[in-house]
């Protein structure tokens, strides 16, 4: 309706004016914003048959990437710019803006739950709050491209814009960016935030009507454009600076340096391609004009008696540049763009405005460029800094802007360095970005496959980082946490957070029932059969059982469960008859052994005799009874330090089977299961363990399980193709200080640059490099030692000894 009305107005204007005087339109803050209609799908009508759409994209680690990767990104970016059509205008917009501090803290701080651990939640919050003040966490950077299309038909314009956004999405994904097509509300919120940094945007398209349009939702109370080089938005002071000259020394760090200014800034770079057929004739015309100038200067020189080659330096330089430009266009497939570059500053007062203006000018001068405020054009400049896609600013040659080639436009590359701030109910604190001092806050649950690794040399802070994550999961989620602990590292953690520290050995009187699980699962019997065949093979010392042995095991298991199902059916019938009785217990290894003994084959008798030490009252009968209740605690630690070497391999098979049963049970209850395997390389000497983790690593996302391998040397992982695949396909890897050979392997597997590798070379304890999805960022963590939580996080021998002595004294 709005678009129809605008067309009617346009048609009316084209008619012959009447003799009556034209009534002036009343000036309002709404009509100072130069778009006509912002539609809900994100298409904006700008007037004069011009439409625009916008995408928002995430950053990539350009500044710390290896040089060849930087070149690859830059060339790809230039390729994207070269692909723009003649009628396409494009605007790169980078928006630094303050976020509401209270809202931000509300998102990342742990909430009290009214239990005995609230004090620890507050202690952890103190660490986060202290680190908040060290960086620019209250500044958020949004990056977007806005495309325009000129078309008399809105449907055709939408098709054109949809094609452009899809093309950009695909190409930016190749660079590792996540891309989001912005809807109308997204675009309106950006404009509102430019006008009102830190403000909260409340808007719903259902409220739009003839008396309330989208501009009413974003327009401030007042604009004041009476000053020549600045303006006011309500009670805030603003200025837009325009880039006057583009230096040949301008580097790809120009935008990065501007975005590092910790303030409300909008960087807006408008580019419009020259028609292909006009590029070369225009350059040749300019060359011809300068050649005429050169001849005139040479004639003057001859007449005045000096060397005719001594023409003005500026003319000589311009002529050389024009010939180089012609070469670039004709033979290097470059394009010409008409460009305008702006920086908008939004400050609380005039003093702050002048301070930030000085910072921007200083950064520009650093790159041998000059920025100025365009007098009496601040209103137009402001609109050029909104995510709309057009500029009406009159500046540069012919008033249209500066003519630049693709490489110069490419130097304005929007990629700087990644941050990892994803506040959510399940997010964890992983330290701070040492480059920006910003918090690293994310949730592994957001990753396609959240399983991952902690890799580091001894005494680098590996166990500390793992425990820090576990503590946050215990305090902030209802997820189950299971640890396989070969060095009894997690005993204090279990004690503090009411977990169970299960010491797995033949003397502990702790039992695992191999045959427990969900009997209603269609694949339950077949999975148990596979496991029992591996279990018996391990006992007999085989890699795999022979065919006859497999058949005997399979038959014995099915008879065992047939007997159980019969008892279960009888129990259900008695319950229906009104009797109150206990359900039949799950069958155990003892029950299986009895059935096995009753089989006629000699191989069955041999296997039964081999089971003797593991059943009834045998020395290693920990696998033959009903499971001990405490293995099902929400936080369960399996301490396997005291397992004998002869029992360790078998015990690990049983523990892993118990884990799988737990994972499937939690899946049915809608609960996540986190599994941490410390010194995981010890388990990889067992082929069954390798196969188990290889399969579970792939199946984990489906079942809500998140696995974490913890180990010292990457070299221990890469000699087996399946383990190497697990490492290469992981979306989460925390790397602390690494040995030189391990650094080389990680660089090869994860494609790390030398600058990235410097973060894990002789790294300070608690510092390193973190891969999370597409992001690879350095981190550091100086967790305060005077915080009570530190006592259960540290793995330092001297610190742990001192803490234990303190606890003993308190108990006395």
Task: Describe this protein with a few key phrases.
alpha+beta; elongated; nine-stranded mixed sheet; disordered N terminus
Notes on the structure:
The longest helix is centred in the last third of the chain and has 30 residues, at 547-576. The radius of gyration is 35 Å and the shape is elongated. The chain folds into three domains: 2-6 and 31-99 and 138-274 and 335-411, Vanillyl-alcohol Oxidase, Chain A, domain 3 (3-Layer(aba) Sandwich); 435-510 and 630-783, Rossmann fold; 511-627, no CATH class. It is built from 27 helices and 24 strands. Helices cover 43% and strands 17% of the residues. Helix 21 runs parallel beside helix 23. It has 812 residues and is an alpha+beta fold. The chain starts with a helix and ends with a helix. Strands 1, 2, 3, 4, 5, 6, 7, 8, 9, 10, 11, 12 and 13 form a 13-stranded antiparallel sheet that branches. A nine-stranded mixed sheet has the order 18-19-17-20-21-16-22-23-24, with helices on both faces. Strands 14-15 form a two-stranded antiparallel ribbon. Residues 1-22 have low confidence and may be disordered.
């Amino acid at each position: 309706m709005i678009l129809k009305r605008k067309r009617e107005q346009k048609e009316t204007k084209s008619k012959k004016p009447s003799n009556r005087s034209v009534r002036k339109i009343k000036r309002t803050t709404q009509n100072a914003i130069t778009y006509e209609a912002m539609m809900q799908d994100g298409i904006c009508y700008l007037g004069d048959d011009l439409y625009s759409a916008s995408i928002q994209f995430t950053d990539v680690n350009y500044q710390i990437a290896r040089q060849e990767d930087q070149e690859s990104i830059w060339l790809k970016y230039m390729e994207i710019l070269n692909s723009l059509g003649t009628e396409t205008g494009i605007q790169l917009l980078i928006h630094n803006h303050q976020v509401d501090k209270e809202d931000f803290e509300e998102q990342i701080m742990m909430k009290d739950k009214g239990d005995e651990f609230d004090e620890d939640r507050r202690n952890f919050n103190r660490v986060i709050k202290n680190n908040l003040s060290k960086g620019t966490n209250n500044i958020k950077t949004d990056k977007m491209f806005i495309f325009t299309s000129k078309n008399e038909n809105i449907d055709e314009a939408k098709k054109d814009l949809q094609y452009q956004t899809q093309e950009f999405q695909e190409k930016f994904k190749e660079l590792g960016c996540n891309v989001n097509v912005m809807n109308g509300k997204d675009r309106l919120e950006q404009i509102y935030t430019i006008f009102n940094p830190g403000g909260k945007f409340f808007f719903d398209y259902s409220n739009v009507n003839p008396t309330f349009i989208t501009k009413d939702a974003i327009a401030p109370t007042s604009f004041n454009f009476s000053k020549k080089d600045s303006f006011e938005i309500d009670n805030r002071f603003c200025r837009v600076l325009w880039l006057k000259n583009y230096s040949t020394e301008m580097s790809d760090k120009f935008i990065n340096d501007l975005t590092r200014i910790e303030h409300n800034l909008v960087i807006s770079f408008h580019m419009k391609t020259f028609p292909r057929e006009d590029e070369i004739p225009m350059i040749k015309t300019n060359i011809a004009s300068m050649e005429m100038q050169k001849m005139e200067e040479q004639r003057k020189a001859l007449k005045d008696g000096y060397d005719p080659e001594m023409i003005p330096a500026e003319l000589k330089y311009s002529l050389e540049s024009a010939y180089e430009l012609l070469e670039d266009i004709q033979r290097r497939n470059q394009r010409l763009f008409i460009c305008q570059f702006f920086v908008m500053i939004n400050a609380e007062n005039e003093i702050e405005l002048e301070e930030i203006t000085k910072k921007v000018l200083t950064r520009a001068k650093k790159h041998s460029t000059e920025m100025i405020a365009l007098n009496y054009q601040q209103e137009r400049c402001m609109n050029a800094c909104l995510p709309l896609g057009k500029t009406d600013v009159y500046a540069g040659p012919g008033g249209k802007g500066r003519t630049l080639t693709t490489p110069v436009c490419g130097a304005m590359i929007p990629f700087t360095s990644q941050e990892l701030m994803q506040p959510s109910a399940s997010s964890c604190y992983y330290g701070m970005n040492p480059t920006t001092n910003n918090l690293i806050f994310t949730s592994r649950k957001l990753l396609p496959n959240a399983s991952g690794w902690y890799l580091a040399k001894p005494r680098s802070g590996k166990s500390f980082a793992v425990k820090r994550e576990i503590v946050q999961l215990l305090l902030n989620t209802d997820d189950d946490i299971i640890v396989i602990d070969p060095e009894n590292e997690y005993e204090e953690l279990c004690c503090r957070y009411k977990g169970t520290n299960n010491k797995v050995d033949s003397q502990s009187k702790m039992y695992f029932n191999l045959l427990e699980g969900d009997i209603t699962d269609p694949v339950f019997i077949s999975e148990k059969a596979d496991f029992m065949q591996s279990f018996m093979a391990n006992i007999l010392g085989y890699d795999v059982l022979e065919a006859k042995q497999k058949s005997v095991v399979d038959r014995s298991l099915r008879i065992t469960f047939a007997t159980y199902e019969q008892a279960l059916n009888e129990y259900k019938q008695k319950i229906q008859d009104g009797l109150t009785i206990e359900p039949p217990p799950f069958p155990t290894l003892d029950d299986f052994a009895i059935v096995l003994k009753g089989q006629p084959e000699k191989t069955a008798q041999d296997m039964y005799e081999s089971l003797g030490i593991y059943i009834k009252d045998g020395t290693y009968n920990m696998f033959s009874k009903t499971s001990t209740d405490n293995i099902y605690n929400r936080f369960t630690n399996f301490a396997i330090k005291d397992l004998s070497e002869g029992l360790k391999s078998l015990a690990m098979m049983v523990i892993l089977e118990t884990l799988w049963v737990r994972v499937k049970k939690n899946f049915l209850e809608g609960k996540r299961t986190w599994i941490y395997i410390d010194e995981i390389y010890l388990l990889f000497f067992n082929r069954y363990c390798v196969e188990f983790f290889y399969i579970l690593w792939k199946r984990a996302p489906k079942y809500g399980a998140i696995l974490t391998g913890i180990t010292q040397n990457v070299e221990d992982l890469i000699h087996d193709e399946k383990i190497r695949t697990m490492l290469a396909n992981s979306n989460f890897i925390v790397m602390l200080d690494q040995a030189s050979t391990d650094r080389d392997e990680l660089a090869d597997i994860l494609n790390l640059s030398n600058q990235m590798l410097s973060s894990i070379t002789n790294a300070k304890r608690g510092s390193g490099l973190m891969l999370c999805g597409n992001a690879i960022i350095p981190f550091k963590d100086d967790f305060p030692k005077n915080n009570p939580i530190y006592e259960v996080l540290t793995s330092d021998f001297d610190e742990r000894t001192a803490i234990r002595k303190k606890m003993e004294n308190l108990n006395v």
